[in-house]
Amino acid sequence: MDRLEVLSAQLNKADLWDDPVHAGRISREHGSLMNKVEDVMAIEQELVEHIDMIKLAQEENDPELELESVKALLRIRRNVKQKELEALLSGEHDYCSCYIEVQAGAGGTESMDWASMVMQMYKSWAQHKGYGVSVVDEMPGEIAGIKRATIEVDGENAFGYAKSEVGVHRLVRISPFDSAKRRHTSFVAVAVIPILGDGSTRVQINESDLRIERFRSGGAGGQSVNTTESAVRITHIPTGITASCQNERSQHSNKASALAVLQSRLDQLEMARQAQMNAQHTQSLTEISWGNQIRTYVLHPYRMVKDLRTNYEVSDPDSVLEGDLDDFILSFLSTSLDKDEE
Questions:
Q1: Is 130 exposed, middle or buried (0-12, 13-18, 19+ CB in 10 A)?
Q2: I need a labelling partner for 31 at 20 to 30 A (CA). Which of 1, 178, 270, 314 fits?
């Protein structure tokens, strides 16, 4: 509530709209907090009503009414869990949509297959959350999987949640590509970049600083997606950062998408520089190996997924790989909040 009072005071300042970008950010945060407060009050009211209803049902010996109210309480419980997640988002850009990038580590086909599994996990997670998901760029592996891929996740708080996934993910399993059925360990790096989107870009891109290359889109095994050079790769010459897109059918659309990714990458690099941090980006993840992993997925000889930052673990890796990530995200955000308050 203290933050809400601060925002309300800022909204009442006469000169607030002298800076439209700042004013828009304040207005949006104020509206978001007001909605959260109203949601909590509504949940409290509903909770009291159903508890009273259960008491009444027990007094009148009405099992059907009691069962109906118990089901409603379980639904409220799930809703509260989601609100708890939202309450942990306090970062400046947590409300933003984002790009999720996955890059296979060393290990050839095995790691590329793991990269494909991880990307599918994030697509499923995003879809379960009701977010829009679109593939921006994808480089298929020679035999299976992907070497790298980027998706755009569009929706409120997408970055705030997905930032929990930044780091190296390790898989242990019996390889389906090993005829001797030996156990293999594979690594994948994940990066998450906010899409600022409200005019608050931090880096101005000059056309003269760009090298734009056009090439023919290609699928796995060299199979042609189309016969024109519609795919676009853009390099920001001063930094060497690149972005590419081959998902759209027209060169114009691919260029626009690649520019949007490049802008977000440059913005993230600038934010990291200002905070004297290393950008969490796949291009700067030079060692995808044991030392910097955040989560381990074990499919053999036992079954487990464990987050090494929080020690949260589950024994059902299938559900996690199908996109059930919210408990891992909640655990990470809670732990991060506790550290910030120390």
A1: exposed
A2: 270
Task: Tell whether 300 and 340 lie within a shared domain.
Answer: yes
Q: Which residue has the tokens 């925002």?
A: 7
194 bridge partner residues:
98
3-state secondary structure of 245: strand
β-bridge partners, 96: none
Number of domains in the chain: 2
Q: Residue 109 phi/psi, 5° resolution? A: -60, -40
Please tell me the distance from the alpha carbon of residue 298 to that of residue 124, in angstroms, as a whole number: 20
Size of the chain in residues: 342
Contacts of 228 (CB under 8 A, 6+ apart): 216, 251
Residue with token string 């399993």: 173
For residues 159 and 253, state if they share a domain: yes
Residue 154: which pLDDT band, with cuts at 50, 70 and 90? very high
φ, ψ (nearest 5 deg) of residue 292: -125, 35
Q: Tell whether 45 and 119 lie within a shared domain.
A: no
* pLDDT given at position 289: 53
- The pLDDT tens digits of the residues spanning 311-331 come to 999 999 999 999 999 999 999
Which of 66, 87, 108 is at the close of a domain? 87
Cα distance between residue 94 and residue 196, in whole Å: 10
Whether 123 and 56 share a structural domain: no
- Both structure tokens of 244: 């590419």
8 Å CB contact between 7 and 90: no
Contact 152, 136 (CB under 8 A): yes
Say how many C-beta atoms besides its own lie within 10 A of residue 269's C-beta: 21
For the whole model, what pTM was predicted?
0.68
